[in-house]
Fold each of these.
Amino acid sequence: MEPKTAALLEQAAALRRAGRIDEAIAAYEQLLRLDPDLPDSWYNLGWLQRQARRYEDAVGSYGEALKRKVRDPEEVHLNRAVILSDHLARPDEAEAELNAALSLRPDYLPALLNLGNLNEDRGDREAAVGAYRKALAAAPGDALALSRLAGVVEAKSEAGSELIGQIRAALVAPGDVAGKADLGFALGRLLDARGDYDEAFAAYEAANRASRESFGARFKPYDRGAHEQFVDRLIAAFPEAASGQGGDSPIFIVGMFRSGSTLVEQILGGHGKIISGGELDLLPALVARIPNYPKAAAEASETVISGWRNFYADGLRPFARAGASVTDKRPDNFLHLGLIKTLFPQAKIVHTRRNRLDNLLSLYFLHLDPGMPYALDIDDAAHWHAQQERLMAHWKHLYPNDIFELDYDELVREPEPVLARLLAFLGLNRDERLLDFHKRQAPVKTASVWQVREPLHSRSSGRWRNYERQLKQALGEIR
C-alpha cells in the first residue's frame, strides 16, 4: 500500500473509532478515490453512512464491498436488507438480500430471524413460521427464535401447547437473562390467548423483571420527577400557537403506545390519497440534533427551522408519492407537537386514545427497549399516561382545530361515524376500501402486526377485567 493511502486509512479508522462520523466518512471517501479496491474500507464507509442516515449511500457502499469480495459477505447482505426494509421501504429488495445471505450460509441465524420478521410485517404467517422453524433447526433452543415462533402460532393449537412446554423448559434451563425476557413475554402471550390469566400475568411480571435486568448498566429507571419537569419545559417553551404555512405536512398520529395508532394508520392507508409511513424515527432523530431542546426549538430562526424541515423531508422521501399525504404514526411524537407545528404550522394531528387500563396492560405485556422504562412497571406507565394527558391538554388548547381525538373503543364499536368525522377533519372524501385494511399486503412494522390483519373487532376492549385483581394491587385503585 502506498504511504499516502496507508496514512489515510489510519486517519479514517481513527476518526471512526472516535465517533467523528462526518469526518470519518470524508476520510474514507478520499481514501477510496485513491484506492477503491479496499473491501473492508467500503464496509466501514457503509456502516458510517448508515449512522449518518445516508441510507442510499450505505447500500451502495456495502454493494462495493461485496463486489470486492469482502469477508463474511452474508453479514453485508443482512445489513443491506435491514436498511432496505427499515429505512427505504423496499421490502422486496430486502428479501432478496436475505435470500442472498442464506444462499451463502443456509444456517445464518440473523438472516433467518430477519426473514421471519419480514414475513410477519407482510402478514404472511405461514412463511414466518417456516423461517422461525429453520432458525430453530439452525440454533436449537435459541430463545429469540423460540419466542418469535410463539408470536405467530395459534395459541390454542397443538403447536401452541407444545411451545408452552418448550418455553417453560427453556425458562428453567441455564441461559442469559435477555433470552429469559424474550421467552417470558412469549409465554405470557400464549397463556393470555388461552385464557390462563393468572399464569399469564405471572409470566409477564417475570419477563419485565428479566428485561430490566438484561439491560444492565444501560437501564435507567423511569424518573417521574424528571419527566414532569420535561413536560413543564415543553409547555413553557411553546406557550402560543405557531403560525405560517411551512409547506406540505404529513399526517401525525400520536398518543400512547398501544392506543390503536397502528389500526388507525392501516385504515387510513386504504385511502387513495394517504400512504402509511409507520413508526418513523425522524422526529426523535431531529430532536437529538437540537441542543437545549425544547427551548432552542422555540427560539430558532426561520433559516434553522427550514434546515430541520429539510432533514425531515429527506427522511420522508422513500414513502412519498405525488398527490398523497404520508402518515407518521410514531406515538410518542405527542411530546414534540410544539416542534411539529413549528415545522409544519398546517399539520393535522390525530390523537388516539383507549381505555386507560387496557392501554396500561397492553404496554406491560409488550417487550420494549430500555428507552421506554416506564412500560416495565404498571404504576410508572400510569404516571406516563397522566403526563401525556397533561401535555395533550396544552396542545389542544393551542390547536383546538388541528387535533382530532380518536377513541379506539368507539372506533371498533361504531366505525362508520368515527371515520366520517376523521375524514372530514382531514379534508378527504369517503373511500369504500378503508375497512378492508386487514386484506392489504402492505408491511406493518409494529407490535400490532397480527391484530390489524383481522377484520375490525372489539375483543381487546375491556380486556383489563381479566386482570382486575393484579391491576388493583399495582395501582391501588381502579379508575
Amino acid sequence: MTELKEFRLPDVGEGLTEADIVAWHVKPGDQVEVNQIIVEIETAKAVVELPSPWDGTVARLLASEGQTVDVGAPIIAVDVSGTAAGGEPAAAGKTDDAERSVVHAATAGQLQAAESPQAGSEPAESQPDQAGRQAVLVGYGVRASSTTRRARKTAPLPAAPAAPAAPAAVAAEPALAAEPALAAEPALAAEPALAPAVRALAKPPVRRLAKDLGISLAGLAGTGPDGTITRDDVHRAASGATARSEQEVEPNGARTASLAALPGPAGEERIPVRGVRKHMAAAMVSSAFTAPHVTEFLQVDVTETMAAVRRIRDLPEYADVRVSPLLLVARALLIAVRRHPLVNSSWDGDAQEIVVKHQVNLGIAVAADRGLLVPNVKNAAELSLPELARSLQDLAETARAGKATPADLTGGTITITNVGVFGVDGGTPILTPGEAAILAFGQVRDAPWVVDGQLAVRAVCTLSLSFDHRIIDGELGSAVLRDVGSMLEDPVRMLAWN
C-alpha cells in the first residue's frame, strides 16, 4: 500500500514566514535517502539547502522553482512504503540516527530541532527516540493559517496528464500539485504519477534573470545555439507579459510570484523585490527612521598604514591570504571598541535599556548579486591578525558566492563598509539594525598634505562614522573616530593600545 509523506517547508531558524524555491535537486520518480539534499530555498537572508528526512521515492513536487511558499506548506510528497513499517527502521535506532543527523543541520543555521511538537500540532515527520521524545524540524506541525486570502481570479492550474516515464537522463521541471494536500490513502496508489517535463535549456544567469522577472522558462522558445534560451528571449517574454494586480494563492498554501515586467514606457523594466533585497530594504527603512543617525567625517594620512600592508603581505603567515588596508582598519576599530565599550551596544526600546555587548561580532558589508549582505566575524576581537585576515577573506568570498548561512548574517554588533573599493571618498552609512555604529572606509588616494610644516604628497582617505545618537553622544563618537584615525596614521599605536 502506498504511504505518502509530505515534507513541509520548515522555519530554517530565522523566525521567517516564507521562502522562495530556488532549485529542485530531485524529480518525481527519483529515489531519495535521509540527509540527501533535495531543494534549495532562498530566505530573506541566505540560500539554504534542505535535506530529506526520509528514505523513499519522490511522488510529487508540490511547489515549482521561483515560487514563494509559506512556512508549514507542503513542498514535496515522498512515497515511503518501500521502507520497513512505512518509513520506520527495520533495525532499531536507524531512523533515530538519521533524524538526529538531519536535525544536526541546525548548527549550520539551516534546520532546527525541538524536543516536542508545538501545542495543537501533530508532526507526522517525527520519530520517537528511546526516551520517548520527538525530534521535530522547526516549521513542522504548523497549524493551517487562519488568514483570509483573496479569492483566486484565474482558473486553477489543471493537473498534468499521465504520461510514460521520461528517460533518467532528462531533468524534470517541478510541477505544481492540483490538490491542496496529499493524504496517505490507499486510493492514491491508483493515481498515475505526474510526468516529468523536459527542462528548458538556459544558463544559470539566464535562469536567475527569468526568476527575478517572474518568467517561466517552460514555454519559451530559445533563439540561442541548440534552442538555448538567451537573456534577450527572457526580456522579450517579460515585455509582453500581462501584469497581475495581486499574487495568486495556490491550494497548498504556496503563492505564485507576481509577474515583474509591468506595462509601462518603452525600455522600462521592473524587478520584483524579494529575498535578500526585500529584507535589506525593510531593514534600512526601519533603521533610518528608528535610530537618530549622526555621521562624522575624518580625513586621515594613511601612508604608514599602506606601507605596513605591503610589509605584511611579504610575511609567510599571510602567504595564503589577500591582505588589504581593510585588515588594519578592522583591527583599529576593534581596539577602539575595547577602549570605548559603549560603542559596541544596542538600544532595547521595550526595556528602555542600553545593552552593551562584551563580544565583538564584526560585520563587513558585502555587495553581492542577491543584494547587500552583512556577514560578521564572530568574536573578532579575540583573533590574531592572521586569523582575522583569513576570517574576513573567507566571509566575503562566501557571501559573494551566495553561500552565507543565516548564522553568518545574524548576531553582528558593529559594522565596517568599505566604500573605497567603489572609488568613493565617504558617505553617511545607515546603521545595521540592532547596532550602534558603522564605519565607512573611503578610497585611498594621493593628495597634498602638510607634514612637519612641509607640503608633501601622501596617501589619504576619509573615514565616516555613523552612530545612534540615543546611545553615543558627540564626544564618544568623536573619540572613537579619532582613535581609529590615529592608529591608521601610525600603526604602531595598535601595538601600544592593544
Amino acid sequence: MSNSRSGTGRRPLIVGIDGPAGAGKSTVARKLAAELGYLYVDTGAMYRALTLKALREGLDVRDPTEMERLASRTTIALHQERSSEGADVRVLLDGREVGREIRNPSVGAAVSYVSEHAGVRRIMVDKQRSLAESGGVVIEGRDICTRVVPNADVKVFLTAAFEERARRRFRELREKGYDVTLEAVEDEVRKRDEIDSTRAVDPLRPAPDSVIIDSTAMSVGEVVDEIMKLCRGKQECFTAR
C-alpha cells in the first residue's frame, strides 16, 4: 500500500488525529484523507482485527504474553479504496477481509484490553510508523501524536461530550444491523474511556502541541474544514521556507 500525495506539489504532511471512542475520528479522517489525496490509516481497525482473532481462538485478551505472541504471528494489512464517503480501508486479517466482523460489539468490548499490553503496542506501533514515515498520510487512533508519530506536522485531539459519543456509536452499530441498546453502548464507551485513559502504556491524552477540537455541536464537514485550515497553514509554512 503506497502513500499518495496531494496535487499541490507541496511537501506531503503527516496528519495525526487522536481521541476517545465515538468522537468521530474514523469518519473525519476518511474524508480528510480523500480531500488531501492522502493515505488513510485506521490504527483502531488494526487492534480490532487482532482482537477478533483472539476471540476466535478463545484466547484470554487480558493475558499480555498470549496477546504478544498472537500479535507476532498475525498479519494485518490495510488496503485503501475510494468511495463517495471518502477514503475507505479494507482490513485484511491473515489475508482475509474482516472489515465488518471487527465492528461487532463483542470486539468493541474487548479491544481495549488487547491494546493496553505493552508488547502488543510495540509490535503495532512499528507497523503503523512504517505506513506513516514518508508522509502523505492521515493516521488516527488513541496514541498517534504522543507515541506513533510524535513528529506529525498536524496534531489534532478530537473529542465530544460523553453522551454524544455514545449516541454516535449506538447509531453506527444499529445502522450496521447490530441489535444493541443505548445503555449497553454507554457502558462500553465508559469502560473503554477508563481503560484507555488509565493504562500504564501510552494512555489516551492530548499531545502538548495538539489542537483540541470538540465536535459535540459540529458536523463532520465542519470538523474536516477546521483540520484542513491547519493543514493549509502548515503547507504554506513549508512552502515559504
Amino acid sequence: MTKIADDPTRWQAIATRNPAFDGLFVYGVTTTGIYCRPSCPSRAKPENMTLFQTAEAAKAAGFRACKRCRP
C-alpha cells in the first residue's frame, strides 16, 4: 500500500486515465472504500488515494471493486 503522492508516474497514469496501466496496479479511495483501474472515469482527490499492486491486495485492505470500471 502506497500513497499516490509517493509515486508520480502512477499519479500521471491516473490523471490522464491511461489504459496502458490497467492491470499493473489499482488505486483505492479511502473516503469511499472503492478501488479502481487507472483508466476509470471516476475521480477522487489525490490525498484520498492509496495504490495497491493488485485487486486482491485492495480487497484484503477492505476496499470493494468500482462498479464503473469493474477492475
